[in-house]
Write a structure and sequence with these properties.
Number of helices: 1
CATH superfamily of the domain at 90-302: YVTN repeat-like/Quinoprotein amine dehydrogenase
Helix content: 10-25%
CATH architecture of the domain at 90-302: 7 Propeller
Order of helices and strands: HEEEEEEEEEEEEEEEEEEEEEEEEEEEE
CATH topology of the domain at 90-302: Methylamine Dehydrogenase, Chain H
Strand order of the largest sheet: 1-28-27-26
Length: about 375
């Protein structure tokens, strides 16, 4: 009997061992699956947390109350920088150095010189193709605009205009280039693709500043020798549609993103005028400084800066308060532009020949 029990025990022992091993393996498998589920949940949780981090982006531009301007640095040019422009994309600055007969292109962030482009005459103003590859540059004495290849750093073409071309404006769709001819009281219309002169639009007086509506269906021209903006219907064949009162001696004009308000600098009275574009009526007139020239709007559309050329200051206008809230001295400010983020102001100074870079201080 004992021998039978021993035999049975010897046969049961391998089975018990096998069951134990299977249990251990099964336990490990369950543990591994549980760990895998835990890791997957953790990974998903981390992924969701990362997604939340990615969604939280910085605002496109600075906001907050503007309290001042602080000079960061100056960008040296050669002689008489007439205007400074921010090129499409916001990473480059374009300077028309009038008496040096050159364009300077600077890096807008590290302020290094990227290009110095020699020109045959005195450049006054510029505007750009949508990609920034080409600049349309007016030449003061030559009755033409140049097409400047900003990548190659060379003149790529030219188009004849009226006498003493000054302001240049490219339509939002890039199809049309308008040029204000100071001496011939006309605006030249250019087909940008063909680089060909289409027509000249007679003006009621001396044209200077210009801008297009955001849709590009209308253009607005400052009649600096009078007290109106000339509205041009682009789609109807570039014809004058009406005259809009805007204060005496308008010099520069721009519009907000929505296109319902026009902002105009008035040189002689030293004011900035706000106009309801649809109604063609003055909303407000804000006193600034002597000989108000170029103006620049912050991206949040709360503030407007103005070159008070006659008193050598830059003024800051609070558009909610409708008042100039402070001025800072700077030598002969003639042109200006705000950075894409609204954190800096670039001011071209006639003398000394430089562009002053100012930080826009906010609370």
């Amino acid at each position: 009997m004992k021998s039978k029990e021993k035999g049975l025990a010897s046969r049961l022992l391998p089975c018990c061992l096998l069951i134990s091993l299977l249990g251990a393996v099964s336990g490990c498998s369950l543990f591994d699956k549980s760990s895998e589920v835990s890791r997957t949940k953790h990974a998903r949780s981390s992924s969701h947390a990362e997604s939340r981090k990615e969604v939280k982006k910085e605002p496109e531009f600075e906001t907050g109350t503007v309290t001042g301007l602080q000079t960061i640095t100056v960008l040296r040019v050669e002689s008489g920088p007439k205007s400074v422009e921010l090129m499409p994309g916001g990473s480059r600055l374009f300077v028309n150095d009038l008496y040096a007969h050159k364009n300077f292109i600077f890096d807008a962030d590290n302020y290094g010189v990227l290009k110095v482009i020699p020109l045959p005459d005195e450049p006054v103003e510029a505007d750009f193709s949508k990609d920034g590859r080409f600049a349309w540059v007016s030449l003061y004495n030559s009755s033409k605009v140049l097409v400047v290849d900003t990548e190659a750093g060379a003149v790529a073409g030219e188009v004849t205009t009226g006498s003493i071309p000054k302001e240049v404006a490219v339509s939002p769709d890039g199809k049309w280039v308008y040029v204000a001819n100071w001496n011939s009281n006309t605006v030249t219309v250019i087909d940008a693709k063909l680089r060909a002169r289409v027509k000249d639009i007679p003006m009621a007086g001396t044209p200077r500043g210009m801008c297009f509506s955001p849709e590009g269906d209308f253009a607005y021209v400052c009649i600096m020798g009078g007290s109106t903006l000339t509205e041009v219907n682009v789609g109807a064949g570039h014809v004058v549609s009406r005259q809009i009162p805007c204060g005496s001696n308008p010099r520069h004009v721009l519009t907000n993103r929505e296109g319902n308000i026009l902002y105009i600098s008035n040189n002689a009275p030293g004011t900035v005028t706000l106009v309801d574009r649809a109604a063609g009526a003055v909303i407000a007139t804000i006193k600034v400084g002597r000989q108000a020239r170029t103006i620049a709007l912050t991206p949040d559309e709360r503030y407007l800066f103005v070159c008070n050329y006659g008193e050598e200051t830059v003024g800051c206008v609070d558009l909610l308060a409708r008042a100039q809230i402070f001025k800072v001295p700077t030598s002969q400010p003639i042109g200006m532009v705000v950075s894409a983020r609204g954190d800096r102001l670039f001011v071209s100074n006639y003398t000394p020949p430089q562009v002053t870079v100012m930080r826009i201080v906010r609370q």
